[in-house]
From TrEMBL:
Keywords: Hydrolase. Coiled coil: none annotated. It comes from the Archaea. It is an enzyme of class 3 (hydrolase). Pfam families: Ham1p_like (PF01725). GO terms for cellular component: cytoplasm. This is Non-canonical purine NTP pyrophosphatase. Belongs to the HAM1 NTPase family. One of its GO terms (molecular function) is ITP diphosphatase activity. NCBIfam families: RdgB/HAM1 family non-canonical purine NTP pyrophosphatase. GO terms for biological process: nucleoside triphosphate catabolic process. InterPro entries: ITPase-like_fam, RdgB/HAM1.
């Protein structure tokens, strides 16, 4: 089976190849991202659009992820990329630093579209917001701690073992195996 992963991030493609028994190819396509509080809606709409743009030969997968901070009522959630670009991780840390509830979760929804069906698969990893630590990863990794270590302190392999995207991809892999 061949799958097109709609992303500009080659690291995400490598991660998908680790989980999926498929030929995963990167498809660089900038779909129109619907504004929604629901990661599943965003990913599903993107997958439908990308499938059409790719010509409808191979199924596509799209992932949408976000950081959800409990004490901030889930902010930044699906707006994480925009918040990182505009506020930055230091300012998000400052918002969370004095909260009683710094529990957080990284969530990812991977949407699969093949022209007949669109299915979504969710992965989540729990953690908490901490002062920035570490030099690896990207995005909010330096302020997201899971089991005593920030994602930025983990090497790529260790992070992928527990990642929210990996958990969503594992669910997709199970679903594909049952088809």
């Amino acid at each position: 089976m061949s799958l097109l992963f709609v992303t500009t991030n080659a690291g995400k493609v490598r991660e998908a190849r680790d989980y999926l028994d498929a030929d995963v190819t990167q498809f660089d396509y900038d779909y129109a991202e619907v504004q929604s509080d629901d990661l599943g809606e965003i990913a599903a709409r993107g997958a439908r659009e990308a499938y059409e743009a790719a010509g409808g030969d191979d199924p596509v997968i799209v992932d949408d992820s976000g950081l959800f901070v409990g004490g901030l009522d889930g902010f930044p959630g699906p707006y994480s990329s925009y918040v990182e670009d505009t506020l930055g991780i230091e300012r998000v840390w400052e918002l969370a630093a004095d909260l009683d509830d710094r529990a957080a979760a990284f969530r990812s929804v991977v949407a699969y579209a093949d022209g007949e069906t669109v299915e979504t698969f969710t992965g989540e990893v729990p953690g908490r917001i901490v002062a920035p630590r570490g030099t690896g990863g990207f995005g909010f990794d330096p302020i997201f701690e899971h089991d005593g270590e920030t994602f930025a302190e983990m090497d790529t392999e260790a992070k992928n073992v527990v990642s929210h995207r990996g958990r969503a991809l594992a669910s997709l892999a199970e679903w594909l195996a049952e088809r």
